[in-house]
Amino acid sequence: MTQTKIAVIGGSGIYEIDGLQNADWVQVQTPWGDPSDQLLTGSLDGVEMVFLPRHGRGHVHAPSDVPYRANIDALKRLGCTDVISVSACGSFRDEMAPGDFVIVDQFIDRTFARPKSFFGSGCVAHVSVAHPTCPRLGDACEEAARDAGINVHRGGTYLAMEGPQFSTLAESKMYRESWGADVIGMTNMPEAKLAREAELCYASVAMITDYDSWHPDHGEVDVTAIIATLMGNADKGRALVSRLPKLLGTDRAPCPHGCDRALEYAILTQPDARDPEVMAKLDAVAGRVI
Ligand SMILES: CSC[C@H]1O[C@H](OP(=O)(O)O)[C@H](O)[C@@H]1O
Ligand SMILES: Nc1ncnc2[nH]cnc12
To answer: Could you give the domains of the chain?
Structure first.
């Protein structure tokens, strides 16, 4: 048994969470640079919590420039076991309406301008992301959402686009009709892949703000409308988060889906061929296996 430590990465509209006991903003240094901001540590219902605003307080980091590796490294370094990402998203489905939440379980990664791995030459590793989210953590998010009275959908494919512009109409229709995506955002990749490399359970809660641009009755996506929906969603997101500690508890059994053992057989570079400088940077994320 290990101690649960829940990390929450807050997306657009969520820059802090309330109600933490012994709340303290702490600076964490990582070999991958500075995280998006200081991290808010504390506890809720006896469970350790860490909150990180993905875009920084004041929304300073664009989706392409979010320091995804530093963020995940910092959460791992602080001893987090589970990561819940809470993100503003567009919807490709009539039934996934603005104000609804979706517990995402799959991704299509269309990002191309961000570092995507902690590993590389000097220490090569290949983890599986066939199932990129943790069903156990997804269960807790679903239950928390239902308990908070949120209209929640279990399962959905999140298309991660580079941004910062929204999609063209042709792209929006293609993602929806040909690719089968359910929601769209700009930040969950490479975040989810990095969480897997760091052996962290990861769940993604998509808070729907708009219908992107495909919907014949809703016109094109517009940031003013997004912001109006975002505020109500942020309150619901915080209500969901506040219910998680009781659901997850303090004592954490090994992940039944193996998220916390993802690196077990993933590193291919032989110990005597590993680059010491590269290995030093992996002290937190791969510390269990190197
Ligand atoms: C506010 S609209 C676009 C912006 O919102 C989402 O951010 P996050 O995923 O951090 O909630 C989306 O991915 C874009 O970055
Ligand atoms: N339609 C959309 N496309 C990309 N990111 C979003 N974030 C919120 N709505 C979005």
So the answer is: 2-281 (3.40.50.1580)
